[in-house]
């Protein structure tokens, strides 16, 4: 369904409680299903992607009760799962698809995984190849590069794996498989990526050792159900961080934001660009840091973003590109080829759509170059069915001189179902 966004010179004021982190919500269900006993989750993100994860485990016979943000998972452990009589549908979710491949590889069930049109184009060999080295058995298009993929659960062997790509999904798929493999699995990262899997392993009582970019996990450990509190998603907060900084006369307080350092690249970029941003009420929940962030309208300057920062802000790049259109000077985003294999090719999508609004932005092989500040005007924008492109377009419309229309507002439900309600609540 298309949506017209027409805000006449708004200012943004107020407080938003940021909904649950998508990565942590997925993992809370996965670990709850693997562990023996009852797991309770608080602050769960009821978005399309996370519900796809719940649906997969329900089909495997795990009992999962969802009541708004509270979830209860009752499981007798991975060995008690049923062989499903239906195909597991992972929807639009790369995280569900790749992590499930790692989990199912070492289970004792046979299953088939399929996703939506976007998932069917996203590369899976980055997980199926190392998992095969551990003894996993997959059948799928192009040597298990693309879904649908059939998985026959097998006894696995530990692996020592040096990652060729900075990806938390690849790391996590191997760690999940390693948990059900004989011996000690060691993963060495190229760059540090989000470490929610490692932290949740600790939270569920597993023995895991992390030394710099090396992670060691002893196989065949039994996990026990526990209570998990999910912090707010900094990738969702990012849209309001940028809105608060670029919309005139604005001040926003974002509560309950996850501040795990493997995710806070956008905070460093905002500070580097001169944004008026501060953090208060730092706290810890379930092995994750949280806090409240205040942001106000700022004079911004261009910056360079690359190297180890990229995995720590990978999903925020579309909205950071919009931020850069309103900053003085040049912003260079590099080392971000991974954007090409997200829900859509996010280098092409961001550059094409921001150009329609009048931005001075050029695609490069591994990112983009933006010159600013540029006044933006309205246009009909295409989301490519990608939630992060849809939300970037909505935030852009707050600073355009005329209306922006987006072709699909529903896609925001993948990670942020109440995005438009929360946006409306702070527009004055
Ligand atoms: O592990 C995760 O929860 C995620 C890892 C990242 O993907 P990659 O591992 O492909 O970089 C990120 O883009 C995705 O939104 C969530
Ligand atoms: C890339 C994303 O998620 P996934 O890989 O789980 O589809 C995202 O949320 O931006």
UniProtKB/TrEMBL annotation:
Recorded GO MF terms: 3-phosphoshikimate 1-carboxyvinyltransferase activity
GO biological process: amino acid biosynthetic process; aromatic amino acid family biosynthetic process; chorismate biosynthetic process
Organism encoding this protein: Psychrobacillus glaciei
PANTHER family reported for this sequence: AROM/DEHYDROQUINATE SYNTHASE, PENTAFUNCTIONAL AROM POLYPEPTIDE
Domain Enolpyruvate transferase: 11-423
Function according to Swiss-Prot or TrEMBL: Catalyzes the transfer of the enolpyruvyl moiety of phosphoenolpyruvate (PEP) to the 5-hydroxyl of shikimate-3-phosphate (S3P) to produce enolpyruvyl shikimate-3-phosphate and inorganic phosphate.
Family: Belongs to the EPSP synthase family.
Binding site for 3-phosphoshikimate: 22-23, 27, 167, 169, 315, 342
GO cellular component, one term: cytoplasm
Active site positions, chain numbering: 315
Annotated binding of phosphoenolpyruvate, by residue: 22, 94, 122, 169, 346, 388
Main location: cytoplasm
E.C. designation(s): 2.5.1.19
Root EC class: transferase
Pathway the protein contributes to: Metabolic intermediate biosynthesis; chorismate biosynthesis; chorismate from D-erythrose 4-phosphate and phosphoenolpyruvate: step 6/7
Pfam families: EPSP_synthase
Subunit text: Monomer.
Catalyzed chemical reaction(s): 3-phosphoshikimate + phosphoenolpyruvate = 5-O-(1-carboxyvinyl)-3-phosphoshikimate + phosphate
Keywords, in A-Z order: Amino-acid biosynthesis, Aromatic amino acid biosynthesis, Cytoplasm, Transferase
Protein name (record): 3-phosphoshikimate 1-carboxyvinyltransferase
């Amino acid at each position: 369904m298309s949506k017209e966004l027409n805000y006449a010179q708004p200012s943004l004021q107020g407080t938003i409680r940021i909904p649950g982190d998508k990565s942590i919500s997925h993992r809370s269900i996965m670990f709850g299903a693997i562990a023996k006993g009852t797991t309770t989750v608080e602050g769960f993100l009821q978005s399309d992607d996370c519900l796809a994860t719940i649906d997969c485990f329900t089909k495997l016979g795990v009992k999962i009760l969802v009541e708004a943000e509270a979830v209860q998972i009752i499981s007798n452990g991975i060995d008690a799962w049923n062989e499903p009589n239906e195909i597991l549908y992972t929807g639009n979710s790369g995280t569900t698809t790749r992590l499930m491949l790692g989990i199912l590889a070492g289970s004792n069930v046979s299953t088939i995984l399929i996703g939506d049109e976007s998932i069917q184009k996203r590369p899976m060999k980055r997980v199926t190849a190392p998992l095969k080295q551990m003894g996993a058995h997959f059948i799928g298009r192009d040597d298990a590069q693309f879904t649908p993929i059939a998985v026959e659960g097998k006894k696995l062997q530990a692996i020592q794996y040096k990652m060729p790509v900075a990806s938390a999904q690849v790391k996590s798929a191997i760690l999940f498989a390693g948990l059900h493999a004989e011996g000690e699995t060691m993963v060495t990262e190229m760059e540090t990526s989000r470490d929610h899997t490692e932290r949740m392993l600790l939270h569920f009582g597993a023995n895991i050792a992390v030394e710099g970019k090396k992670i060691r996990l002893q196989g065949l450990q039994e996990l026990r159900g526990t209570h998990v509190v999910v912090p707010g998603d900094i990738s969702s907060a990012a849209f309001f961080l940028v809105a608060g900084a670029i919309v005139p006369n604005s001040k926003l307080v974002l509560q309950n934001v996850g501040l795990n350092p493997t995710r806070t690249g956008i905070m460093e970029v905002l500070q580097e660009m001169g944004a008026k941003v501060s953090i208060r009420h730092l706290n810890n929940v379930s092995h994750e840091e949280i806090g409240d962030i205040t942001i106000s309208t700022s004079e911004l300057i261009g910056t360079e973003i690359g190297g180890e920062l990229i995995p720590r802000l990978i999903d925020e790049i579309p909205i950071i590109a919009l931020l850069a259109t309103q900053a003085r000077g040049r912003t260079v985003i590099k080392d971000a080829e991974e954007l090409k294999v997200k829900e859509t090719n996010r280098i092409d999508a961001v550059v094409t759509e921001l150009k329609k609004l009048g931005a001075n932005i050029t695609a490069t092989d591994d990112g983009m170059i933006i010159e600013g500040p540029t006044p933006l005007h309205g246009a009909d924008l295409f989301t490519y069915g990608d939630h992060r492109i849809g939300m970037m377009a909505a935030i852009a419309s707050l600073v355009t001189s005329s209306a922006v229309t987006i072709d699909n507002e529903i896609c925001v439900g993948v990670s942020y179902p109440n995005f438009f309600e929360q946006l409306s609540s702070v527009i004055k």
